[in-house]
Structure formats: C-alpha cells, structure tokens
C-alpha cells in the first residue's frame, strides 16, 4: 500500500510542476496577444507557430494531469472499498462470536432511532 502512496505522491508532484509550467505558458499567451497588435506578417507567422506549440504543450500537460487525477481517485476508491469490506468482515465476526449482545445492540439502536423520529415528527 505504501508503494502505491509513494507512486501517487510522485505523480502528484509531477502534476504540480506541470501545472506551474502551464501557468507560465498562459503568461506567454498573454504576451503574444499584446505583441500581435504591432507585429508584421513575418512576426505574426512566428507568433502563430509559438501559439501552436504552446497549445500542444498545454494539451499534453492537461492530459497528464487528468491521468494522474484519475489514478489517484481510483486508488482512493479501491482503498475505501477495502476498508468497507474489512469493516463488514469484522461485523460478521462479532455477530458470530456474540449473537445475543449483537441483537441487544441492534434493538437498542432501533429503539433510540424510533424515539428520535417520534420527537422529530412531534415538532411538525
């Protein structure tokens, strides 16, 4: 489990640095837009190429960030699923080991919920 966590941390760190790079590219786009007004046709061609390159880089970085985020979410879902399965298994074992105590706890919880709902219904 720790190898998954360290792998996800490394990818998150990579995604963060890619996000910073995307911010720099966005600033470059702002500079390009301000340069367009005073540029000649040759300069406009060069700017067009830079914009195309920047768009490609940003698209690649966004795809990488989406992949890291998806992998992180999948790992969290899998971890939650494993915890839920372990909790269910522990509950089954407790009920098998102490059936009378389990029935008493369930009855007490049912009674408490019934009283709570009755009180809430009485407020309306």
Lay out the secondary structure.
Layout: H1 2-36, H2 41-97, H3 99-123
Helix pairs in contact: 1-2, 2-3
Domain DUF883: 91-118
Keywords: Membrane, Transmembrane, Transmembrane helix
Organism: Derxia gummosa DSM 723
Describe the structure.
This is Glycine zipper domain-containing protein. Helix 1 (2-36) packs antiparallel against helix 2 and helix 2 packs across helix 3. This protein is mainly alpha-helical and 124 residues long. The model has no long low-confidence stretch (mean pLDDT 83). The protein contains 3 helices and no strands. The protein has one domain.
Structure summary:
The protein is mostly helical and 124 residues long. It is 94% helix and 0% strand. The mean pLDDT is 83.
Strand content: under 5%
Taken from the alpha-carbon principal axes, the silhouette is elongated
Class by alpha and beta content: mainly alpha
Count of domain modules: 1
Give the tally of β-strands: 0
List the uncertain runs.
none
What proportion of the residues is helical, as a percent range? over 70%
List key phrases describing it.
124 residues, single chain, elongated, mainly alpha
